Amino acid sequence: MDRRRFLLTVFGGGAALAVGSVSAIRLLGGKNRNVMTAATPAAMPAQDMLLECFSDDDGHNLGPCHVQKLVLTDAQWHQRLSDAAFNVMRRAGTEMAFSGSHEKPNSKGLYRCAGCSTALFDAATQFDSGTGWPSFWQPIAKQNVIENRDTSYGMVRTAVTCAGCDSHLGHVFDDGPAPTGLRYCMNSVAMSFVAFRVS
C-alpha cells in the first residue's frame, strides 16, 4: 500500500469513527431535558431552529433556545419509539379513543414530545373533551408545534406536528373552550408527561 492510500485509509476511517461517535452521543441525548440535541444521519444535515424551552422544575419559560431538528432514519425511530408510537408519530396514525394514558393529571406539569422532548403543552390548558384523546386549548408555545392542512380520508383538517422532530401529534379543531375556542386533540403515545418537581 502506498503512502497516500495509507494516509487516506487511516484519516478517512478516523473521521468516520469521529462522526459515528458524535451521532451515537447525540442519539443517547443529554441528561438535561431542556438542552435538546439531535441525532442526525451523516447524509442529512441538521436544521438549526429557535424554539421555546421550559423547565421541568416548575414549567418556567426559559426563553428561546437554539436546537437542532431531530432527524433519524426509520430504523432509528423504531429503536426509540414503541410500535404504537411509531405508527402515530412517523406514519400519521391515530391511537384508539380512550386507549391512552394521559387523562387530565392530578399534578401540575407539562407534556413533552415522546420523540425529542420538545415542550408541547402545559397541563393547565388540558380539558376533558369527551373524545377519548388528550385535549388542550393551546400549545405551550406556538413555535414548538407546526400546523399543516391535512386532506387525508376525504376530510379537511389541520394536522399538528412537533417542530423539534416533525413527528405527528394529532389535529386541532375549532370546537374547544374559551379562551381560544380551539381543541388540540393529541395522541397519548406521542407525548410524555413530566410532573413539576416544585410547586
Automatic annotation (TrEMBL):
InterPro entries: Met_Sox_Rdtase_MsrB (IPR028427), Met_Sox_Rdtase_MsrB_dom (IPR002579), Mss4-like_sf (IPR011057). Residues 74-196 form the MsrB domain. PROSITE patterns: MSRB. One of its GO terms (molecular function) is peptide-methionine (R)-S-oxide reductase activity. Transmembrane segments: none annotated. Keywords: Oxidoreductase. Its EC number is 1.8.4.12. It catalyses: L-methionyl-[protein] + [thioredoxin]-disulfide + H2O = L-methionyl-(R)-S-oxide-[protein] + [thioredoxin]-dithiol. SUPFAM superfamilies: Mss4-like. It is an enzyme of class 1 (oxidoreductase). Pfam families: SelR (PF01641). Belongs to the MsrB Met sulfoxide reductase family. This is peptide-methionine (R)-S-oxide reductase. The gene is msrB.
